[in-house]
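[job 4471] stage=fold_predict status=RUNNING
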Amino acid sequence: MQEVNDCFSKVKKDCFKFISSQETKKDKFKNKERMIKSFLIPVSLWISKRVNKEKPLIIGLAGGQGSGKTTISSILTLILQKYFKLNVFKVSIDDFYKTRKDRKLLSKNKHPLLMTRGVPGTHDIDLMLSFFKKIKDKNFKSLLMPTFDKAIDDRCSKRLWHKIKTKPDVVIFEGWCVGARAQSSSQLKKPINSLEKVYDQGAKWRAHVNNQLKTKYKTLFNQLDGLLYLKAKNFNLLREWRIKQERKLWLQTKNKKNLKVMSSGDVINFMQTYQRITQQMFKDAIKSSSIIMDLNSKHQIQKIKFKK
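[job 4471] inference complete, writing structure tokens
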């Protein structure tokens, strides 16, 4: 407990500053101190004890759309850097989305639904595998990593890419489907929502996505040294949180041109592409995760379970 209190006194200012940067007038964080002291500092302690200076520790952070992955991973990064003096690099699976041009090609050759970013198969998996290989290289020098702009639904130009100058001690790899597992063929047969029923009548799209999970994504997720999972109560809650997130994106970017910010209706349709894997992860991720953080309906961490 003493270590938790010491840590909190050193990181409190930076963590609160970051949290306030994420708030809007209508959407304020509650129980900040409890979230940091009771949950995120213990998780940071768990991570710090597993660091091996020989090679980076790769920690996955998964959770449905709008569950708070970016906020949680940012605060964990702050704590690990400030208190534990670790070199941490935070990366999102979203930054590895294929370009609009590549997805357009994919949608023509495989299935029209693959134009919509999100599901396995819409990321540049070879770029991700290359990233993990280079980050573990003993002769690591520096590394450029892509960034993706959701407001224009495309990859940023190279001058805006992240540059990693020194080998990290910890990589936090966050994403809604990080650690997801494939379903059986029989599970794919029945559509689970109106989007699958209308636009994927032959189950070709979901079979393609599932095959990606079974092959290349399985190879990718095998690189993880641990998995943290933010577990929401149900899919409807995630949908609400995701609509709120899109509203915040609109407020931040409303004066810019060529935006691809979604309306509430767009978000509901968009999230149907995520529904199958998200609901399967409610069952699978609680078995395969190292740490499970249960979220209540108010978007707060309610309890935490350390499994491995």
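[job 4471] summary: The chain has one domain: 2-306.
[job 4471] exit 0
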